[in-house]
């Protein structure tokens, strides 16, 4: 019952009355308190009368030099000051983020592809701009990252636009296309192969779910009545790169992953394969956080 009464009191209490009480306890003079609050003296007197009703206590009594607080008022002085300071902090707009003095720990959910094409290009700039901050790259788990972001377990996730949760905020980072890639001295990639030659090559593909031998390239081939030879299925893009760099296998790989790699020969595919768009995802709860905004801008500017 006491809890319910106190809750009702708080709910019905005008915060301005507490601000006035804090000033009255500081000045112990209605006139000076009114001047500092930019109120009229009668207005402050009316508020003092309301405060006496709220606390069922005179609070301030006439004294030889102004007013003197009652014992109840003295007990209110410090907790009231702390409470008003906490409220002021809560409603004050957040300060601008200073990366140089920050000691943030950011958690990014990324596949090995996103690690290479998004995180790595941004890493040196992040380290230079925010040297006291830390970065944790965690394994991408698409069925879970929406919940992880909601609970603050990750700050950002990198995913294709297709399949990204509609409830999460997003920013497009880049559009990706597929290219044909093999080792630098691959005898059959000295020039762009014909479609028939392409289908006879031994291919490797990435199967994120594990063990699959069919992908977007095979769907494109099916539309023209053709198939290719997929002899190796791997779960990660980086292993795909290692496999084609050290064998006669070839792959249809994202261009950003294999560009400027001297161990590889890259050429256009003889069949058009749809690419995809890569985006950055985050939860609404951190959308307006200055540190998070800085991180997103920094990453977007690096890719």
Write a brief caption for the model:
With 303 residues, this protein is of the alpha/beta class. The protein folds into 3 domains: 2-91, Orthogonal Bundle (Arc Repressor Mutant, subunit A); 105-174 and 278-302, Periplasmic binding protein-like II (D-Maltodextrin-Binding Protein, domain 2, 3-Layer(aba) Sandwich), CATH 3.40.190; 178-274, 3-Layer(aba) Sandwich (D-Maltodextrin-Binding Protein, domain 2), CATH 3.40.190. It is 44% helix and 21% strand.
What is the number of E strands? Answer: 12
What count of helical segments does DSSP give?
12
Shape: rod-shaped
Helical content class: 40-55%
Q: Mean of the pLDDT scores?
A: 91
The CATH architecture term of the largest domain is 3-Layer(aba) Sandwich
Q: What radius of gyration results from the CA coordinates? A: 33 Å
- Structural class call reads alpha/beta
Number of domains: 3
Keywords: DNA-binding, Transcription, Transcription regulation
Domain HTH lysR-type: 13-70
Family: Belongs to the LysR transcriptional regulatory family.
Pfam families: HTH_1, LysR_substrate
Overview of this protein structure:
The chain has 303 residues and is of the alpha/beta class. It has three domains: 2-91, Arc Repressor Mutant, subunit A; 105-174 and 278-302, Periplasmic binding protein-like II (D-Maltodextrin-Binding Protein, domain 2); 178-274, Periplasmic binding protein-like II (D-Maltodextrin-Binding Protein, domain 2, 3-Layer(aba) Sandwich), CATH 3.40.190.10. It is built from twelve helices and twelve strands. It has a five-stranded mixed sheet with strand order 4-3-5-12-6. It has a three-stranded antiparallel sheet with strand order 10-7-11. The two termini are 60 Å apart.
